Amino acid sequence: MRNDTAAAVAAFPQRHPRVARVYHPGLATGEQKRIVGAQMRGGGGMLSAVLDANTERTAAVVDRLRLFAIAPSLGGVESLVTQPITTHHGLDPAERAKRGIADSMVRLSAGLEDANVLIADRAQALDAD
After folding, report:
1. In terms of Cα–Cα distance, which of 15, 30, 68 is closest to 46?
2. Among candidate residues 16, 43, 22, the one with its CA nearest the CA of residue 106
């Protein structure tokens, strides 16, 4: 189930030293958790992570992923990854920052693959430097 897979993939980078922040409804706390519980039956297959890296190092991490296909948009049965800096290239860096879009952010869509395999792929991509 994509909800469970995405939740497992979202939980992994929270413990990784190169990940600054993870966004996924299943990680919500406080009032946000109450809202998620009232509105959703699961956390969904999408998550975002802000890496402790510059734009070039973030792109290198994305390029090292083996199971997540780089895509201009997300959604489907296969696991996909994109950097919002590419989808929001029309915004200057200050406007992206104002909207919470860090140059080191990656967005992932968990597909039907096994969560442990996807987690291993993310780990090797983050640890390759």
Report:
1. 68
2. 22
Name the helix (H) or strand (E) containing 9: helix 2-11
DSSP element (H, E) containing 47: strand 46-51
Q: Which of 86, 78, 81 is nearest to 62 (CA)?
A: 81
CA distances to 5, 40, 48, 83, 95 from 101, rounded to whole Å, are: 24, 24, 10, 10, 9
- Band (1; pLDDT cuts 50, 70, 90): low
Q: Is 46 helix (H, G, I), strand (E, B) or coil?
A: strand
User: Would you say 62 and 70 are in contact if contact means Cβ atoms under 8 Å apart?
Assistant: yes
User: Which strand (E) or helix (H) includes residue 56?
Assistant: helix 55-64
Residues 36-45: tens digit of each pLDDT: 999 988 888 8
| Angle (nearest 5°) at CA 103 between 97 and 107 | 105
**Whole-prediction pTM:** 0.72
Q: Which of 83, 82, 80, 81 is nearest to 55 (CA)?
A: 83
